[in-house]
From TrEMBL:
Molecular function terms, GO-annotated: DNA binding; DNA-binding transcription factor activity
Region listing for Disordered, in residue ranges: 143-162
Pfam families, sorted: MarR
Coiled-coil residues: none
Organism expressing this protein natively: Fulvimarina pelagi HTCC2506
Listed name of the protein: Transcriptional regulator, MarR family protein
SUPFAM superfamilies: Winged helix' DNA-binding domain (SSF46785)
Keyword set, alphabetical order: DNA-binding, Transcription, Transcription regulation
Amino acid sequence: MTLLVNQQIALGLFDAARLLREAFEHAHRDMKITWPQIRIMGRLYVQEGIAQSEIGAQLEMDPMTISRQIDRLVDLGFVERRTEQRDRRLRKLYLTRHSRILREDIEKRTQSVLNTALHGFDAERQASFLEMLKTFADNLCEPGSDGTPSRSRTKFRAANEA
């Protein structure tokens, strides 16, 4: 059976996402953190002080899952929860001194994975690829042509736009 090009694109994206997740987990295995925890740490490096519920929504993790993942990061000494003074129900997340010290190492490991993934892409091709990903994701954030709302909660953002 021959797949249509758009089906090949979808399958390629799924496979690439899986391989990228596996590469990140492999690169950070000695730190004892998982892919969901790597995603949380990456978000906190960009948006420290974000509410636990907000990071859960951004990463599309249900409240119980995000809570367990953050519990583990707290246990490892990477993250601390602080209760908001104005609303004691609101818990904001902050990086610890330990995670700040490890930031450079985490970024080097992350960059190594990305360099491998983007091998053979010059700067122009990388910029073009990023634009295609943005358009692809933005299209999924728009209401469907039949008027149905988007299933995505957040638009694609490059880290420098966060």
